[in-house]
Amino acid sequence: MDLTKRENNAIQANGNHFVNGARSDIAITPHGSDWYFTVCAVMIVSSFAFAGLSFTKPRSHRIFHYITAAITMVAAIAYFTMGADLGETGIQPEFIRPNNHLVAGNLREIFYVRYIDWVITTPLLLLDLLLTAGMPWPTILYTLLIDEIMIITGLVGSLVTSSYKWGYYVFGCIAFFWVAYTVTWTARKHAMAVGPDVHKTYLICGVWTIFLWFLYPIAWGLCEGGNVISPDSEAVFYGVLDIMAKPVFGALLIWGHRGIEPARLGLHIRDYDDPMPGGLERKTEKDLAGNGHHHHGVTDGNTATTTGASTTV
Ligand code: RET
């Protein structure tokens, strides 16, 4: 078989999905599919990089590597799905544009799998960010729940054919403004209180996030909402944003954390051979060797609920 002549046949294999007897006539072409598979490859490589880098840290210091690797792993699967022309359904656009050949047609291909990705990964991105700021967990939890409202309203709106879709869009935007306020204001105050190095890392990742996240509702308005740009352009728009918001964000965050002890953020994470809080002191080989791994004494363990630069020797 001549591999140089092999073409991506995902559209042929999976693109004959019919909704009520009709096939989406506003849909990705093999170019869109190729691009989705390219982004999938970027996400896979990033996942290996983040997971691999975690081994340069002791297990008690890997939380940000784990969260970030999980984000790109989920995205890789979502992009595989979209490259394969799956995870989509045909939706009649509110605005039918017969005179624009890029979006002429009666059924637009809507990739609902995008929202399944986002409902998992956007809370994890916020978790990365808000843990960096040393935010208290109730505010973190609340912000993640509001974020899920934003994504689910976006999903429902994208599947609605009438103008009511914009009602969902407005709910989603209100939720987003709440999230943006928390990231730019409340969490920034917390980051400042921890220390200037933490504040700097938080600021870089936070500004990057909010700038990029503002572009998603614009993309939605042009794609799922307004049916203005073609599904191939949609692939490029969301694909570039997702690369910036996941692998590039992750790299900035992990780099920013290189000199930050998780304990300073209130994250006191035990390894299996650390002494239990309130348990009996148990000397391990690592304690005796004193290899720089962090071991809290029995009394230190009891202060695990305090925040700030209180512990670690
Ligand atoms: C929607 C439509 C409803 C209104 C708003 C939206 C915002 C979506 C955002 C998505 C971010 C996704 C990321 C993915 C990472 O790869 C749902 C489009 C405000 C902000 C960061």
TrEMBL record:
Pfam families found in the cross-reference section: Bac_rhodopsin
Low complexity composition bias: residue spans: 299-313
User: What does the UniProt entry say about where the protein is found?
Assistant: Membrane
**What keywords appear on the UniProt entry?**
Chromophore, Membrane, Photoreceptor protein, Receptor, Retinal protein, Sensory transduction, Transmembrane, Transmembrane helix
Q: Which residues are listed as membrane-spanning?
A: 35-56, 63-82, 115-133, 140-160, 166-187, 199-216, 236-255
Supply the PROSITE patterns for this chain. Answer: BACTERIAL_OPSIN_1, BACTERIAL_OPSIN_RET
Q: In its keyword annotation, does this UniProt entry include Ribosomal protein?
A: no
Stated membrane topology is:
Multi-pass membrane protein
**Annotated region described as Disordered, given as residue ranges:** 280-313
Q: Tell me its family.
A: Belongs to the archaeal/bacterial/fungal opsin family.
> Would you tell me the protein name for this molecule?
Family A G protein-coupled receptor-like protein
Origin species: Stereocaulon virgatum
